[in-house]
Structures are given as structure tokens and as C-alpha cells.
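Archive entry: two folds, one per protein. Generate the first.
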Amino acid sequence: MYKISIVHKITLILFFISGMSFTSLFAEELPVIHKASLHSPMRVSSHFLCPDCTVSLSKSLLTLPEEKIMAITIDDGPDPRDREFSEVLKKHDALATFFYIGEHIPAYPDVAKEMQAEGHEVATHGNRHNYFLSLSSDQQERNIHKGRDVLAKLGIQSVWFRPPYGAFNANTVKIAKDLGQKTVLWSIDSRDWAKRNTSAIAQTVISQFHPGAVILIHSHQQASLEALPLILTAGQQQGYRFVTLSSWEKVLLTASCRVNQNLCPTVVASAAPLHSTSSQPVVADVAPIEPPPESKSDEETPVSENNSEMIVLQIEN
């Protein structure tokens, strides 16, 4: 069960009624550097796809046929429907990344292990589907830590973190990075959380195709499952390949090295991380930290940390 305060429940209702973004609703309440609009399309809000990346996803970057890729990402599982998603993906020779909520995993541990065995990537969506801008630093750390570790107990090493609702700030990104997790959001929102029509979901995604896209869908939506073959077929007809986020990352690094002569690996391509505080390629091997102490209170606390030097990955027009 998702945990969210009364204030944010009211805000969610206002958002769906008015179409306003969380960015505008919380601009005065939570002055942070990055507040992604709730499931905003990348063309509206292009600054939050990968908030600590060192490479820019521009139209001039992914120009070779082999670089025409997109990443399907499937949130909010594990869910028994994930097996059906995997079957559809297999028929199209495609892979995806599943973002799982930690507290849901004990109910379906086999689903998580099966997705990894099928070649998909499994990553963390946090332990609970909390609105992270309402959490203290300790609460954010505990949420990400638990979400990562429940996967680790199944033999699944998560390297990606997606904050629920796309809500994060500089502090969230730093905490995730310290835990060995790379924060990533999306560039194409299927809006399946608002639409229940298969063709509408498919068209929303297909109309926004672009090289390097990260597509967001949800595993608990039957209409999304039905829309997936339409999305995959349309993409493949346009020459796209559908890959995991780690493969997506390697393609971006390779393209950046070729086009911009930067982020070029000194040893092997996979050794240069996309996320780095330096412009030079380094080997990042982040050791897990000890679990943070349990908070004395589960009360949600606003966060206002700031970092004006954050480098972002964005789509350039």
C-alpha cells in the first residue's frame, strides 16, 4: 500500500483535476533544485531524465543505425503480469528494465528472479512508493537501502534507482549514488496511469519516439500489456532496438566518445560510468554501506537540500 500524506493526497487530486504539475504546486513549499513534474513528458520537462549524468542526450549524438535504441522501463512490480510482459518482449527480441518496489517483492520473489533469468534488468523503485520530497534524508536513505537490499537477498544486484512519482532533489541523487544506485527517470511517459485505452497508450508512446528514449509504463495496467506489442512493432519498423538501461548507458557512452571525443574508456567500454563527478572516465566501484539506523518517527519531513552544480542529461532540441 502506497504511503503518502494527506497534504499530498489532496495535491494528487488537484493535479488530476487541473493538469498542474507538482513543480508548480510545490514551488513555494519545497525549494529544491530538481522537482520533476508528476510523470511529465520529456518534451515538457527535459531536465530530469538522468540527474547526475555527464553526457548530454542530443539529436546529434545517436546517429548510427546501431545506436538507434530505446529503453522500455516497467514500474511498480513485481506483479504476476510481468511474466506476460516478458513473453511479449521475447516475441519481439526485446529486453526491458523492471523497477520493483521493495515491500512488494516478498509476495512475488519468483517473478523478480524470473525477469532477471530472462535477460531483463531488475532495479529498485525504493522500498515504499513514497513521495521522496516529503521524506527526511534518513528516511530517503532507508527507503532506497531497503529497496536495494531486498533484491540483493534474491541474488539481484540493482544499479538503477527510480524515485516514485519522479520526485527527487539533489540530496536524493547523492543518497542513491552513495548506495551504488544511479538515478534515472524517463523521457516518454505512456500516461497509462491516466489512460486505460490500449490504442491511446500506444499512440502516446509512438508519437514521441526518439533515439535514446526511456519509456515509462506500469506492470499493473492490463492496457499497457496490450499496448506493448503495438509499441514494439512500431519501434522496430522504424529501426529501433529495445534494450535494458545498462545497455542504453553503454551505447550513450560509446556515442559520446565517437561524436564528442569525451567519456572515452581507457580500458574497456563498460568500465567508464555514465555517472561521474569528473569529465574523465573512471572506474566506479561503489561499496554498499551499512543500513542507516531506524528513524524514531515515520513522520514525513520536507527536504530542501540544494546543489547548484548538478549536471543533467537532457534532450536538446
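Generate the second and append.
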Amino acid sequence: MTRRCCLGLVATGLINTHLSADEVDGSNQANRTRTLSTSKVAPGRVKTKWATEYRVGRFQVHSDAPMVASKSSPAGEFVQAAAAGQAATSSQLDHKKVAAELIAVQRDVERTLKIQPAESTIHVVLFHAEHEYNRYLSAYFPKLPRRRALYLQDRGPGMLFAYWHADLLEDLRHEVVHAVVNDEGQSPPIWLDEGVAEYFEVPAGQRFAGSPHLPAVVAKCNDATSPSLAGLAKVKSMAEFTEGYYRDSWAWVHFLLHRNRPLRRQLVRYLADLRSGTPVEPLEKQLQRTCPDLHQQFVAHFRHFASRQG
């Protein structure tokens, strides 16, 4: 299964005991919007009654297995039963960790990118197993691409779908970034949307020097090679967004956040203009004008990490 994904959907009122979404029709690669048509659930379709539902901040969590007390966890800590006959483990199925991560990454993104907190609900739908996640998406969203996790949003409430596995918290961090960054106004270009999500998906203490993307980017910069920002900006569809684009997008976001304060302010201002609906020049063109030695600055930024490692 491939990486996570953020898609736009007309999805008003879909999260309840039984979803009524029937299929997704058509696509618009220019703005990555898909149209969701709704109808009655056909006989034999998957119907889900959420065994667990709770709210934390703006997140409404729905899960298909009950929360139970864990004998291996401290008193008062709850974990989710994976399935009948399977033991839950606090390391994999701890709802307290899920709740904490949802709130923490939301606050990190808002603080770093100067985004005003919103109150609109984000629905988080968690399945106890990958096959249940796939079965559900196939029933209600059959034309969506298969990803390890999905964030869907347009005119209705944002919906985050994922399943329990070893990297669940990483997936949740990634998708919550999409939820916060795409909350209002115009969506960022794909490269920036995914680059910001890649930046925040690792734990907070690893964001500066602990990303798995860092060694490959440092190696390229040691050869005086920087990824083409103009090339990234030309990618208009998630279908075209290959693994290397995630790495390169992360690198540009890391550079803009950490190289110097003027670049960070430029990124923050660009995202603020998008949220306000202000007509704005593409960020890559702004950077070419305000930072004539952009390539040299990028290479120097990541060569610094090579010297730290040495």
C-alpha cells in the first residue's frame, strides 16, 4: 500500500452510524477536487456501527472496536481491543496516545505556521485492521486511490481515515497537517501541502535533524545538486506524486523553515494569503525574485548537516 494522501471531496454529513456515500465521480487535476455523490446504501454494502466514539478538542474519533482497560497499562489508561480473540497492546492501540498526538500536532502546525485555531470538526475514523479499512473504503469510496491513510475534505467536515498499525501515529500526524493547512481558503500547491505534512509527521524532537529524508538530501547537496522547485510546482496530480517528490518537497519546506527568518516569514505569509483568498504569486516565483542565490542557499543549508555528522 502506498503513502498517505489528501483529497478534496464534497462530503457534507457523511460521518454517522451508517455512512450514505455511494461513490466518487470524476476528477479535476488542477485543484485535486473530486465530487462525491450520495445515495442510499445498496443492499449488502458494508455498514459500520462505531464501537468507540469520543471527542478531543476539534477531533471527533470513531473506531470499530471497543476500548477496554489494559492490564499492562497504568490505571486509567485505555487501549482498544484489536479484535475478538486478539490481545490489545498499549504500544499499538493506545487511544490516550492517539488523542495526545492529535492535539499536539495541531498546535505545533498552528504555532509554527501562525495559523489561527479553528473550531470546525475533524472526524477521525480508525479501523482495527487494514482489511477492515480497505473493505470500508471499497464500499463507500470505491474510486479513491488506495493509501495507508486518507484525509478527505471540501465543503463538508474533514474526514481522516486510518487503521491501527505500528506507524499509526506518524500517519495521523501527516494527515492532521493536511486538515489544519487546508482548513479554509485556497489549498496550497501539492508540493507544499505534502512537504509540510512530511515535515511534521515525525515526532517534534526529530523535525530539525531526524527526518528519514535528510541523508538522501544531504548526499545530493554534497554533489551541489538541489531538487527543482519549478519541477515540483508543475506536479498537479497526486497520481504523479512519486516517492522522490515527497523527499524533495520535505527538503524545500525544511529549508524555508530553518534557513533564516526572512524565508520562514515568506512561507508563513504565503500560506496566510492562501487562507485569506488573496490573489498570490506562486511561492516558487516569489523565491526566485527575493532570493537570487536560492540554489546556493539550499545547498549550503543541507551541507551544514554533513559537517555536523562529520
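Annotation attached to the second fold: Strands lie at 5-9, 21-28, 33-38, 52-56, 59-63, 67-69, 78-80, 122-127, 150-152, 158-163. Confidence is low (pLDDT under 50) at residues 9-45, 69-92.
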